[in-house]
Write a sequence for this structure.
């Protein structure tokens, strides 16, 4: 079973996001902070690295598919903070528009300095 298969068919709660923030391989990224239409407060995107860090991926909750999907995935040498930010921005904009959002503080992922 992969992480993608183990995620619930809904965005994560803030508590679930905080729990994942303690992981070595998963970091919550985008949190919708205010009710906007049918979207409730919670964690909507994740940054995931494979064991050993050879692959980095952004996962997002797709409300149209009612489940989590791989937004973008890179090898360790392909990944950059800019590519990650661009993938996140495009995903959030296309699925959630201009809802109020914030980033969870994570050692990895969005804005991380290591390639």
């Amino acid at each position: 079973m992969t992480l993608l298969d183990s995620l619930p068919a809904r965005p994560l709660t803030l508590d679930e996001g905080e729990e994942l923030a303690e992981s070595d391989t998963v970091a919550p990224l985008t949190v919708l902070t205010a009710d906007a239409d049918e979207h409730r407060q919670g964690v909507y995107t994740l940054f995931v690295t494979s064991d050993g860090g050879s692959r980095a991926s952004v996962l997002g909750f797709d409300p149209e598919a009612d489940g989590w999907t791989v937004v973008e995935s890179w090898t360790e040498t392909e990944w950059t903070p800019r590519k990650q930010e661009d993938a996140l921005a495009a995903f959030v904009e296309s699925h959630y528009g201009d809802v109020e959002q914030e980033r969870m503080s994570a050692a990895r992922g969005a804005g991380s300095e290591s390639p």
